Amino acid sequence: MEKKKYLYCYKMTHDTGFAPNPYHGVLTLATCKPTIRRCAAEGYWISGWAANVVQGKKQKYTDKAQRLIFLAKVEKVISYKDYWEETEKVYSKKKQPTKSIEKGKECFKSCVNRIVTKNDDIAFCGDNIYEPIKGKNNEFEQHENPHHGEANKAHDLSGKNVLICNDFYYFGIENALEIENKNFVVPRCRKFSLEDNEAKAVIEFVTNNYETGINPKKK
């Protein structure tokens, strides 16, 4: 008997490109939402919806419409260790730039040795920030980043897993998709069975009408 699958829905109060991170051709969720990351499995769907006020883009809504920031299908669930040590040359692009000195000046270099500035949003949105400490099981060093500090470390790592989504629709807060469905109400955080007609309707509406990727175009 096939295991039941779910659509996770949650309200997003921040949309900075860090959690989730939709860049480099794959959407990843490696920080925040630890319960979802612990429980989600391959074939689950995840969706982020706009809260009334969303930081990052300073977007504020006064109406009660439901707006979808992203929808993604979980293809793989991997450990932090595998995420950091990957060999596919995709996840490594999501590592934070490191400080360097070039011609006597402090600068930052991305994983491909490209010099970037702090205005380079994509480079500094990297969510691959936890490096395994050699000789210590399940202990990690948090790399410096502009999003999460030591106060967030235990919360992040309690999620145990990183979710990898190749099929995703990332509208972003500025282009969030208004979903008109009076029977589908998104609370702060909830999961719906994929057998639920209203949950299926939301997924089908997006997948049938939009192409995958960032700022997906209509089909």
If you average the pLDDT, what whole number results?
A: 90
Number of strands: 16
> What letter string, H or E per element, gives the SSE order?
EEHEEEEHEEEEEHEEEEHE
Question: Could you tell me how far the N terminus lies from the C terminus, measured between alpha carbons in angstroms?
Answer: 35 Å
What composes the largest sheet? 8 strands, mixed
Number of helices: 4
Computed CA radius of gyration, to the nearest angstrom: 18 Å
Helix content bin: 10-25%
Q: Low-confidence runs (pLDDT<50, min 5 residues)?
A: none
- Give the amount of beta strand, in percent: 25-35%
Principal-axis shape equals globular
**Number of individual domains:** 1
Secondary structure category: alpha+beta
Verbal overview:
The chain is an alpha+beta fold. It has one domain. Helix content is 15%, strand content 34%. It is built from 4 helices and 16 strands. It has helices at residues 34-39, 80-84, 150-157, 197-209, and strands spanning 6-14, 27-29, 45-55, 59-60, 66-73, 76-79, 98-102, 105-109, 115-116, 130-132, 140-142, 161-165, 167-170, 177-179, 189-193, 213-214. Strands 1, 3, 4, 5, 13, 14, 15 and 16 form an 8-stranded mixed β-sheet that branches. The longest helix is centred in the last third of the chain and has 13 residues, at 197-209.
Q: What is shown here, in short?
A:
With 219 residues, this protein is of the alpha+beta class. The protein is built from 4 helices and 16 strands.
Features:
219 residues; alpha+beta; three-stranded antiparallel sheet; 15% helix
Which helices and strands appear, and what pairs or packs with what?
Layout lengths: L5 E9 L12 E3 L4 H6 L5 E11 L3 E2 L5 E8 L2 E4 H5 L13 E5 L2 E5 L5 E2 L13 E3 L7 E3 L7 H8 L3 E5 L1 E4 L6 E3 L9 E5 L3 H13 L3 E2 L5
Parallel strand pairs: 1-3, 13-16
Antiparallel strand pairs: 1-15, 2-12, 3-4, 3-5, 5-13, 5-14, 6-12, 7-8, 8-9, 10-11
